[in-house]
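Training component of the fellowship. As part of building independent skills, the fellow (R.M.) carried out the full modelling exercise for a liganded target. The chosen ligand was zinc ion. The inputs are recorded below so that the supervisory panel can assess the work.
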Amino acid sequence: MEETRFGNIVFIPGLNKARYPYCNSLFIDDEVKAVIDPASNPDLLLNIKKTSSIDVIINSHYHEDHFAFNYLFPAAALWVPELEAPCFKSIQSLFEYWGAVGPSLENEFQTYLKSFHYEERVIAREFRDGDVLEFGKTKLEVISTPGHTPGHSCFYCPEQKLLFTADLDMTSFGPWYGDKYSDLLQTIQSVHKLLAIPAEVYITSHDMGIINGSIKETAEAYLAKIAERENRVLNFLEKERSIPEMVSKWLIYKRPMEPQHLFIFAEEKMLRSHLAYSMQKGQIKQVGDKYVAV
Ligand SMILES: [Zn+2]
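Fellow's submitted model of the complex:
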């Protein structure tokens, strides 16, 4: 993908099709110059920095593949979702939101975080649902879309009818809800919230990047991944199974992810979300420490 301009909003493609550990960024080239999610491509971001003094950087949520190159803009004011501000102020809070608690785990995550250049920062602005971020001619409405993370935020520019969907990314993998405060049902509700916005151009953080026209079918296929996961879990529960048995099968990711000892957290968290959701619907029951389909 190439850099693409929509009025004063410039799409900055991430390396490797913006797959993890990269994402797509937006450069707001207005009176106030800003970069949203600076984790795309350090060379492109440094080029922008050379020609424009960046006043503001914005993170849509606290994930490392969205803040990896924040460090290139030490003088810029940092704007983040109010609900996730603690993660940017202190590494301990970031660990807590991830669900990585305990000295040995924290050490492992700290090592992992080194390549993402995490640094504790002062927050200049904490935004919330409905806030309008003004850059001059360009205005972005904050659309709070919890589920992936509790403060996950999308941004809508009415003038360009452009919606930045962040990690409601419409990838073939499907939605991700694998952190401590992630939530399956909120994720579904947030996708529906996006569908009610009259956008004509959509920018995702990963893979597809720019989607022109309607995202209705893309969003339906994206949400269908949740039902596919649910079916895989239900099929595996033909017999009574324990959580470790299910986790070892990678029913959500479908294959072992590296580094396994870190990804196993997200696998278990998402699996537990499905167990809770299916129990609520009366599709499975718990027998001791095992689960089985009914
Ligand atoms: Zn994310």
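The panel noted the following from the submitted structure. The mean pLDDT is 96. The longest helix spans residues 216-236.
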